[in-house]
Amino acid sequence: MQPVKKRARPNARLVLGLAMGLFLGVFATLTVLFIDVDVLTSPRNIQMLVVPTTGTALEGDRRIIGIVEERSGLFRRHQGYYVYAGCEEDMGYGHFVDLDFGIPSPPVIKDAVAESGGIRVRFDSGHELVIPPKSLNCWR
Question: Listing from the earlier edge strand, what are the strands of the sheet with 62-71?
Fold first, then answer.
């Protein structure tokens, strides 16, 4: 007589297949979300002001102050708003101050004034931000 081979139960294969499918689905989703956060698009410039700096301790004759929005690369999800301070009109290189504290719309700069202690930025909301001179360098 030949020994009887035990067959794997059909339910076990089904459960194993579902578990593997679930694992691969979660892994693929997490990979896509990780790539989405890691790959950022070029920032979108929302507002730009030119601040004259003549007669202050800052070298040069002007600084650019602006609001920049950053979005993720794949799904274009909002990543944050930043105040830019620097010399380049495309606002690509300079000092960035993170403003993302749960605001639904971009902040609006009311005015920006160069003072001895740096540049004072006033927002429509009434908030103020002072960017010190050491953060306002224009060279790389």
Answer: 44-52, 62-71, 78-86, 95-98
Instruction: Note the pLDDT of residue 40.
Output: 59
The closest alpha carbon to 109, from 68, 61, 55, belongs to 68
DSSP string over the chain: -PPPPPPPPHHHHHHHHHHHHHHHHHHHHHHHHHHHHHSBPPPEEEEEEEEE-TTSSSSSSEEEEEEEEEEBTTT--EEEEEEEEES-TT--SSEEEE--SS-SS---EEEEEEETTEEEEEETTS-EEEE-GGG-----
Give per-residue pLDDT as tens, 83-140.
998 888 888 888 889 887 777 788 899 999 988 888 899 999 888 999 988 888 776 5
Token pair recorded at residue 132? 């010190």
Most confident of 24-38, 50-64, 91-105, 107-121: 107-121
Distance CA 18, CA 96 (A): 47
CA angle 76, 112, 64 (to 5 degrees): 60
